[in-house]
Amino acid sequence: MRHVISVLLQNKPGVLSRVTGLFSGRGFNIESLSVAQTIDPEVSCLTLTTKGDDMIVEQITKQLHKLIDVIKVTDMNETESVEREMAIIRVKAEAGTRAEVLRIIDIFRGKVVDVSPKSYAVEVTGPASKLKAVIDILRPIGIQEIVRTGVISMSRAKKS
Q1: What local confidence, expressed as pLDDT, does residue 24 receive?
Q2: What angle do CA 34, 64, 62 make, to 5 degrees?
């Protein structure tokens, strides 16, 4: 099962290396990783995805808690959250396909971020399923390159 884990940690050199070392040292794979500074410049939020059953993820979170610079670990699968990912896709856009590419991107609420005589670079943001759908639709037109971020996730605010 896929798990998204959010880790608040001290924004210091070597902390990310210790987190990834923990995974590799125990034979766990990181499928995606995204890390950036939070509102507090001393703290970063690392979001990673991994696969494993609940016991494995529990073991991972326990090991993460043991790291000195880790402040908080949250398995986002255990809370209501919002997930997003972004992709920049370079797709062929020659005279006969330009209008079709623009229609597809509009349907997926994406935007063109770069234009050349033979291609468009388009940005699409959303859950992984949306990115998969747009990639599947653009593939027959001719995808030249794809760059994706990792998943980012935030707990939903309490409604009451």
Answers
A1: 84
A2: 135
